[in-house]
Amino acid sequence: MQRVEGKVCLVTGAASGIGREDALLLAREGARVVLTDLNEEAGRQAAAEIGENALFIRHDIASESDWQHVIATTLEHFGRLDVLVNNAAILATGTIEDTSLELWQKVQKVNGDGYFLGCKYAIEAMKKTGGGSIINMSSVAALGAMPMFCAYSASKGAVAAMTRSIALHCKQQGYRIRCNSVHPDGVNTPMTQALAGGQPIPQALLDQDPMNRMCAPRDIANVVLFLASDESRFVNGAELRVDNAQLISGI
Fold first, then answer.
1. Count of CB atoms within 10 A of residue 172's CB?
2. H helical segments located in 146-193
3. By three-state DSSP, how is residue 183 classified?
4. Residue 103: CATH number of its domain
5. Is residue 220 part of a domain?
6. What is the rounded CA–CA span in Å between residue 187 and residue 183?
7. Do residues 107 and 152 lie in contact, with contact meaning Cβ atoms separated by under 8 Å?
């Protein structure tokens, strides 16, 4: 359908999991895609799978100089930036009692500072070319209580609140830059599989259970595609849950 034809999309954490699926789907729908990650080998493989309409850049999202380099390289290579998918993140377990200050700060630096920097520099680029769409990957952990993910929940709560602030700021400034957050529950990726012993889980097996909390990366990518496209032109400052009603189930 070429739903994002001609758009330039930047996806962080694109070497695997949700980010990789985002990048591949956006490219299939007509976008030119910049893939960033710390995993150079897997990132370059994903870019090679897309072909000439893809560019891979090694990227530590917690580094301001890395963000400056990524945005500058994107503009130099493709001439513009229309979509930012802030996807890269780290997941750490720990309640308030057993989370160290060191772990807390590490999670906030990546998941909080990294998304802040991405939004800041993406807005600078997008407002020069008439607007764009920023998609911040948050979590149901930002909306409900998950005691075992104290630092992670806080970081994703910050992402959700920042998203609302950015959406209204850009609207008031007339930038035509939309900013929305996506809130998955479980996603069947290497990061979440690591919490269950590192063994891959067949999605078909999970999908047999109507109570399943673990969606496929493609389920999130479909939402990202919608938010990246002009179909969502009036969706701004929204929190889109992808959780099979888990947040409201009371379980």
1. 8
2. 150-173, 190-193
3. strand
4. 3.40.50.720
5. yes
6. 11
7. yes
- 2 is a domain residue: no
Q: Say if residues 138 and 160 touch (Cβ distance below 8 Å).
A: yes
CA-nearest of 120, 131, 129, 155 to 141 is 155
Residue 223 is assigned to a structural domain of this protein? yes
The per-residue pLDDT string of the chain (251 residues; one tens digit each, 9 = 90 and over) reads 799 999 999 999 999 999 999 999 999 999 999 999 999 999 999 999 999 999 999 999 999 999 999 999 999 999 999 999 999 999 999 999 999 999 999 999 999 999 999 999 999 999 999 999 999 999 999 999 999 999 999 999 999 999 999 999 999 999 999 999 999 998 888 777 666 666 777 767 777 788 778 778 999 999 999 999 999 999 999 999 999 898 988 65
Angle at alpha carbon of residue 13, lines to 11 and 19, rounded to 5° = 65
Closest of 8, 2, 4 to residue 125, by C-alpha:
8
The residue from 115, 121, 152, 175 that is catalytic is 152
pTM over cut 0.85: yes
Q: What does the block give as tokens for 167?
A: 């959406």
Residue 249 is assigned to a structural domain of this protein: no
User: What is the domain extent for residue 178?
Assistant: 8-242
Contact 208, 151 (CB under 8 A): no
**Whole-angstrom distance, CA of residue 109 vs CA of residue 107:** 5
Number of domains in the chain: 1
152 catalytically annotated: yes
